[in-house]
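Archive entry: two folds, one per protein. Generate the first.
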Amino acid sequence: MTASTKSQLVEWIIQLDDQELIETIRAIKESVEKGDWHKSLNDKQKASIKRGQDDHKEGRVLSSEDFWKKHG
């Protein structure tokens, strides 16, 4: 992961208003620090990750550049 990607993620997280998403990110952070983060996610969080993986496999993706054009 490049420094630019990390910076983009930090900037995006700072601007988040969605408390559920913020909580999910916090849970992932804490889980990573503990080890196997996937085990500590609830079913809703796991389903969300699975949807993202399926979107990626099916080509339903948005480049970072396009995202920032729309949301930046």
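Generate the second and append.
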Amino acid sequence: MPWSWRYEDAKGESVDGPTETFTSQADAESWIGQTWRQLASSGVTAVDLVEDDRVEYRMSLAPAAE
């Protein structure tokens, strides 16, 4: 089952992003670990990890509050 990411902006609206697909959850998570800064700088504030059409989890790309 393919894994992929969905992207959202600060308003919670879907935005375009890379259309990478992965063969495992670990590969998808490794990729987001390498690219989240670039996504955040382009206006993506949250991502959903998706397996087929099922959302595994949602994650914010906003910096942690100090």
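Annotation attached to the second fold: The first helix runs from residue 25 to 41. Residues 45 and 61 are 5 Å apart (CA to CA).
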